[in-house]
Amino acid sequence: MKGKPMHRKTIALLFGIVLSFAASASDGELAIHDPYVRLAPPGIKTTGAFMVIANAGGKDVTLVEAESPVAQTVQLHNHINENGVMKMRQVSGIDIKANAQAELKPGSYHIMLIDLNKELTEGDLVPITLKFSDGQKKVIEAPVRKLQMTMPMGKDMKPEDMKH
To answer: What is the 3-state secondary structure (H, E, C) of 93-130?
Structure first.
């Protein structure tokens, strides 16, 4: 009879180990693709960070916070159309549906880096910590990129019309 209580403890211990492996496996369910930070013009102390967050898991998660040592303030933002005017607004979270992805991109959801501690240069790597509603944290390094501004061409315009 003495062996039975020990047997139960062993089963409980093994069950706990299995659960901890299952919890750590969920860390791999979120993946960050193509992160980058937009190069800010000289003298501008605010910029945005962009990326694709893929959720291979079976449950929805929400990006609830981001941090970076390069900025005094880091916020989650979205652009909204308010009476025909595009405005940027802080949001409390960015949802990443199960087996789907969320694209953080210019003109949509993004991470704002506000009051930069130093001027960033093209090629710098910006560390960003992403915190999710399920307790996961992802630390990434996003390269600083210079984004080219393009002018939309009219429907009758051809690239050769742009030459001087």
So the answer is: CEEECCCEEEEECCCCCEEEEEEECCCCCCCCEEEEEE
**Is a pLDDT exceeding 50 seen at residue 164?**
no
Q: Which is nearest to 76 in space by CA: 87, 62, 88, 65?
A: 65
Q: In angstroms, how far is CA 13 from the centroid of its own chain? A: 36
Q: Is the pTM of this model over 0.90?
A: no
CATH 2.60.40.1890 fits 25-145, yes or no: yes
Contacts of 147 (CB under 8 A, 6+ apart): 38, 39, 106
Distance (Å) of CA 161 to CA 22, 136, 157 = 59, 51, 6
Confidence bin at 158 (pLDDT 50/70/90): very low
pLDDT-based confidence at 15, cuts 50/70/90?
very low
What are the phi and psi torsion angles at 122 (to 5°)? -55, 130
- Are the C-beta atoms of 139 and 127 separated by less than 8 Å? yes
